[in-house]
Hints:
The protein is built from ten helices and 15 strands. The chain has 311 residues and is an alpha/beta fold.
Amino acid sequence: MNILITGAAGFIGSHTAERLASLGHHVVGVDNFSDYYDPKLKRQNAKDLAAKGVQVLEVELCDKGSMSQMSNDFHYIFHFAAQPGIAAQVTFEDYLKNNVLATKSVLDFAQTCPNLKLFINIGTSSIYGLEAVSPESVAPQPASFYGVTKLAAEQLALQLSRENKLMACSLRLYSVIGPRERPEKLFTKLIAAGIEGNAFPLFEGSQLHLRSFTYVGDIVDGIVSVIGKEATVNGEVINLGTEKEYSTQQGIEAVEAVLNVKIQMDINPKRRGDQDRTKAVIDKARRLLNYNPHTTLLEAVKAQVDWFKNL
Length: 311
């Protein structure tokens, strides 16, 4: 199959591109290599993908006609590209451009693909709001610009499914961790602090937050399993993550155990929009995709530490 992946040089997109290529698919990636974090990390991911036969093109999705020069012979489109996370320096306009307008651009392109079987939007548990502990049928209550614009992106894709203009689904991911995690995310920052001997900037009260920390390999298992199930997943929203809950404090302790260090904490003011609790409800994913995440927190942290040490 011919597969397009947007955001292919990022954390989860690069792992998905790698997996699909290993399964024998012809994979093309696009990425804008934004400076939200050091572009050198994404360029290294793209270099690693190129060595495995995946070409990553530099494309700004919001630029008019940016995708018009590409072949439209794709059977699947996995849409990862987005303005990620909750950060004070990111404006609403950034979220609007990179999450809503960019998604509209990719969907416009998708409708020109004559052989397209399925458009897969990559969503987030942030769509649910401050507590993401519900099945997909519960009304979203996003509490951040990120969550609001990711919900809008999701609905743009599902609208086209409802109108029978293309087949589409949205996968809501929960607290993904592992090799290539972004440098501002919890575990990469914890590992860096532990190895370099620096204090970790902990948001006040966040050590009590509960998360479905899910290994990236388990997430990719669920993502790629939609292939061949177009009729089953069309129009659906599906949660992907582990049902197990861990506190941020348990995450800290897992990193300390793997590194055999004690990490000092630098307490910062509470961050607005942070979720208090996420717990993936994956009954639907089990039923539709035979989804079964199995990697433990300690196994995931060990894999991420090994990756970090080889940067």
